[in-house]
Design goal:
Layout (H helix, E strand, L loop, with lengths): L7 H20 L3 H11 L7 H13 L1 H8 L12 H16 L5 H15 L4 H16 L1 H5 L2
């Protein structure tokens, strides 16, 4: 039996956010339109809707910063990274850099689980490796206590 995650509404918000980011990366358009579409078409009652919106708007607003922070740790250009893995990396980078209240271990675990659930076989190890290196850079104080 798989252990339950703390704050399941946030985990569901991340799951929906990954799906919305994937859609945004493939089709483009304003993020607020994708958020509205998800709110109308998906069961958002089970997710933390405010966190869902914060993640998506945060990634959109900080996209260049996030991609720049990820870039030293990937082996190809960001547009060549698998779209699911790219979405998981961007979500994880946003949380590592802008949601310091979320422990880095939670960020890494959630991103890895999303990559396992939606990504290509083995993609979760790539996501884990990249975000672990980013965490060492942007959360060094928190990592000293591990």
């Amino acid at each position: 039996m798989k252990p339950t995650r703390p704050f399941p509404e946030r985990a569901r918000a991340r799951r929906r956010a990954l799906q919305a980011l994937y859609q945004w990366q493939i089709g483009g358009g304003p993020m607020h339109r994708i958020i509205s579409q998800f709110n109308e078409e998906q069961d958002m009652a089970i997710a933390d809707g405010a966190y869902f919106s914060e993640l998506l708007l945060g990634v959109e607003a900080h996209l260049d910063e996030l991609d720049g922070a990820i870039a030293p740790f990937v082996d190809r250009r960001m547009d060549e990274v698998d779209a699911i893995e790219r979405a998981a990396l961007r979500l994880g980078a946003f949380e590592l850099m802008h949601r310091l209240d979320v422990p880095y271990r939670v960020v890494l675990n959630e991103a890895v689980e999303l990559a396992k659930d939606f990504g290509a076989e083995g993609g979760h190890t790539y996501v884990n490796g990249v975000l672990d290196k980013l965490a060492r850079r942007v959360r060094s104080t928190e990592l000293q206590g591990r």
